[in-house]
Amino acid sequence: MAGLLLSFSLCPLPVLADVLEIPGTGACEVLLRAVADAFNREHTEHRVIVPPSIGTVGGMRLITGDQAVLVRVAQPLKEKEKGQGLMYLPFARDLVVFAVGAKVPVRSITTAQLAEVYAGKIATWQELGGPPVPIRVLLRQPGDSSLLAIQKHLEPFRQITFAPAGKVLSTDPDMLAMLQKYNFSIGFLTFSSLKGAKTPIHPLALDGIAPTPETAPSRQYKIIEEYALVFKEKRLNDLARSFLDFIFSKNGQQVMKQYGVTPVEKE
Questions:
Q1: SS3 254
Q2: What is the pTM of this model?
Q3: Each residue's pLDDT tens digit, 101-153
Q4: Class of the 17-93+226-263 domain?
Q5: Partners of 228 in the beta sheet?
């Protein structure tokens, strides 16, 4: 018995990894989770977790309240936030795309047509060259980063009254799920989020320009949003600094390119 106890006492105990959670926006959730997975494979003594979205606002609430070390955002700092010792570090730019469900044959749309779809003036896919099936319109909440990017670049969306029948969703993962669930739906989300789809979802060319990684750097496709990590320099620990180094490294940027985003060089 003593020998048995001794043998157990000599067994090495598992080493608990340091853990860093990066809460915040859903716009880059799929992308940043892939980067975190790559980091974790290279740094087995650490673990970076990208939890489900609580939005940019939720992330900012945590970082200003010293309840997080790093948060992910898809909107620049507000004036009232700039004086709180916060650092805003952009790491990628992504396209905001309009996409349709698996059974929609339409692959291109104009800004004018989009505005009429979202206002409820175009109600069936037949009016856009598709089958005589109702369009299920998927929306985002006011103030959503993707919607703000759309309103910045598409003038008709600045004063639009959205169709009452539109389904309002909170995050990119929610939008992704609904686009997969409803075969004749239309919605908008970030290009990198499409990588999380389990069934076909088709991004639409807008005014003749396809949303692709090739059209992003030249800004041919106009609807773009920027991702950044926000932190307080004095609260960064070794794990957070290591992850920041990784996201701007060759390996980290290669992961991001696989998701169709344009990495931003560290200033």
A1: helix
A2: 0.87
A3: 999 999 999 999 999 999 999 999 999 999 999 999 999 999 999 999 999 99
A4: alpha beta
A5: 73, 90
Please choose, from the candidates 171, 176, 182, the residue with its C-alpha nearest in 3D space to the C-alpha of residue 136: 182
Question: Both tokens of residue 78?
Answer: 């507000």
**Token pair in block for residue 165:** 């029948």
Residue-range domain boundaries for the chain: 17-93+226-263, 95-206
Question: How is residue 164 written in tokens?
Answer: 């009452």
Q: What is d(CA 186, CA 175) in angstroms, rounded to the nearest whole number?
A: 10
Task: Give the model confidence (pLDDT) of 2-47 as tens digits.
Answer: 444 444 344 444 444 699 999 999 999 999 999 999 999 999 999 9
Cα–Cα dist 167/169, whole Å: 6
Spatial neighbors of 35 by CB under 8 A, at least 6 apart, are: 246, 247, 252, 255, 256
Half-sphere exposure of 40 (CA within 13 A, CB side): 15
| First CA to last CA distance, the chain | 62
